[in-house]
């Protein structure tokens, strides 16, 4: 555990109140009590079996330093939580865990991505949100409805947060499926629309980002199910296993939609290529019909004096009739071959 500093060494920002969503102490019997940040260490010392749950939103450096002081957080984990832009991971720092998760949220019809950084200790749970992320107040409220489960400690609060994150990913996966279904009419249209292939590409890009958020979550949950006995109580491992199952289903749904989008892009481009081939065939057929009389007329346009057909009385009409007959036959052949 890193060296703890005196309170006077850490400057308190007046904007802390705006960044601290909640700071709550739960007793050993699951009873809730709101406390101030400066009272965390005293509260933990007074109640030897309770724990503290702190939720923050894009905290500044002074606030992170305060949390580091109160909970004895490792400086490397604090630095990562402050700057964000981290890959999903779970790391052990002494007797605490540092977890990084990517979150997703529908904003103005588009998918926006954010991060949540979680500090889990024997007697504390700290969540740090960055970017697009829903408040974890509903998860906390659900925990407070069952005080007996809160008696399991911060590991149950961690379960509630992870379950909330995964549950919010499931509607997004369904939205991707619905959007792909809505694009099917444009995908199988005979005419090429640039907007269709652009939307398919954007959809695949969003699905790839979603997969990068969900796939590492399975590894994190797998560790929480099997490892860290000092922090994860056996009674809560069943709950983490349930979240793992939900995350697995979301990941499978995303992979399925990604494969369908890739197939849709291929089918759309193939249909466009086939349609262009049909156009080329028709153009070639009409070009053949035009080329035949052009060849005949160019033949008789040569300036030779002794051409035997020139002296005939009905040569002009014979050439016209023969040309028309050959063009009619060629038209019938091309029409039967579906080139026209």
Give a count of the beta strands, DSSP E runs of length 2 or more.
7
- CATH level 1 class label of the largest domain: Alpha Beta
Strand order of the largest sheet: 2-1-3-7-6-5-4
Give the rounded overall mean pLDDT: 84
CATH architecture of the largest domain: 2-Layer Sandwich
Structure classification: alpha+beta
Question: What's the end-to-end separation, in Å?
Answer: 81 Å
Runs in which pLDDT lies below 50 for 5 or more consecutive residues are: 1-15
User: How would you sum up the major sheet?
Assistant: 7 strands, mixed
Radius of gyration using CA atoms only: 36 Å
Q: State the helix count.
A: 11
Under CATH, the topology of the largest domain is which? Beta Polymerase, domain 2
One letter per element, helices H and strands E, the order comes to HEEHEHHEEEEHHHHHHH
Percentage of residues in DSSP E strands: 15-25%
Envelope shape: rod-shaped
Helix content: 55-70%
Summarize the structure in words.
Strands 2-1-3-7-6-5-4 form a 7-stranded mixed β-sheet, sandwiched between helices. The longest helix has 66 residues, at 234-299. The protein has 340 residues and is an alpha+beta fold. It contains 11 helices and 7 strands. Helix 5 (137-144) packs across helix 7 (154-182), helix 9 runs antiparallel to helix 10 (234-299) and helix 10 packs antiparallel against helix 11 (315-336). Helices cover 58% and strands 16% of the residues. Mean pLDDT is 84; it is low at 1-15. It has 2 domains: 7-272, Beta Polymerase, domain 2 (2-Layer Sandwich); 273-336, Methane Monooxygenase Hydroxylase, Chain G, domain 1 (Up-down Bundle), CATH 1.20.58.
